[in-house]
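For reproducibility, we list the full input for the pyridoxal-5'-phosphate complex.
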Amino acid sequence: MAPSALPAEQETVAELTNNGIELNVSKTAPSISKAVTPEVPQLAELDASRLEVNLTTSPRPVPGIGSPEMASQKTCTDHMITATWTAESGWGAPQLKPYGPFSLMPTSSVLHYATECFEGMKLYRGYDGKLRLFRPNLNCNRMLMSTNRIALPAFPPTELQKLIMALCAQDGAKWLPKDRPGHFLYIRPTMIGTDSALGVQRPTEAMLFILLTCFAPMDDIPGGMRLLASQDDMIRAWPGGFGYAKVGANYGPSLVAQGEARRLGYHQILWLFGEECVVTEAGASNFFVVWRTREGALQLVTADLKERIVLDGVTRRSVLEFAREKLTQGYKGLEKVEVVERRFVMQEVVEAAEEGRLVEAFGAGTAWFIAPVGHVHFRGRDFEVPMVEGECGRYTKVVKEALRGVMYGEKGYEGHEWGVVVEEK
Ligand SMILES: *Cc1c(COP(=O)(O)O)cnc(C)c1O
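The corresponding predicted structure, in tokenized form, follows.
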């Protein structure tokens, strides 16, 4: 074997995944890479300014509010955006085109090895008539992180955001009309490995696509969400794994347990980790509790991100930032809370519930938004979570109102930096 085929000694280090990610960025998105790799030829990067537009000639009707089509989560808007990548030439010009099926070879990497990652965002129709995204830069950055983790090509996150905004601008006016303030469309940016070589390897071809779909709100559940704590036979994420990335591989294997939970009358699984039953997330939402410590302090608590078994949710981050800014000071006559990000275990939640110290609990994520939790089942025991203001706890309520305010440009939140206005066509 030629000596040049052997890896240099300093490259045979333990950090294979981290090294691979660095190299991926330097090869496929050199403009955002921190590494200098002059020997690598520069390939075309993802570039939203090259967007080619081909509008539909058969536009479809918009489903009515509350209709079965709306609830089906199958109705997408008239258009989608796609962009393809190959290892030889990099990213091709993105296409805005009619929404519809695309063809893949049966040997495509994604169909065998789950080379897929995605994002979940919403386009909001404001009470001031404007269309907004909520902190889209955070989703685009996270999509890049997930992409890198699952061996797909990198891109400048700002270019992805421009493409998302272009699709929203195209379809927003029709599919989220001005007479539907307080409504939203769900945005799903996705990347898949389309390489048709069946070998188990990094894909040398990939496709990015972005779609907009109709979606009914899920955060108003009478009595709050009912959570079923996970059992020892299923772990969502583990240290050294990939629970922190939004890769499809995290979700498929959880659907058996989730389906059983639904069948038994629960909305979501409360995912626990390890023998100590560390509390991590509720379904595909982050999980928060408000409790009073035995010392008397009122705390808003959520799992920390240190072991990378919890997804760094945009909603989670926003709740924490809002709570640190406002709720620690005493807000709207509410008692001050301490904001705590730490590892906590189910036993602490059980004790708080038994000793009357559990105040509230809620899930936080784009899909379910801020969803109050009313009930938790853990290993044969049921715990009710107080829901002070009718259907919602007081802290849950102010958090929800503040984030909603930004999303829908409500009075007092119009120019908030978290709300990014989309200029519609
Ligand atoms: C998407 C997701 C969340 C929520 O993240 P947001 O950015 O707030 O939507 C939380 N947990 C998991 C596992 C998720 O997939």
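The chain has two domains: 3-214, 225-407. The longest helix spans residues 157-175. Both points were considered when choosing residues for closer inspection.
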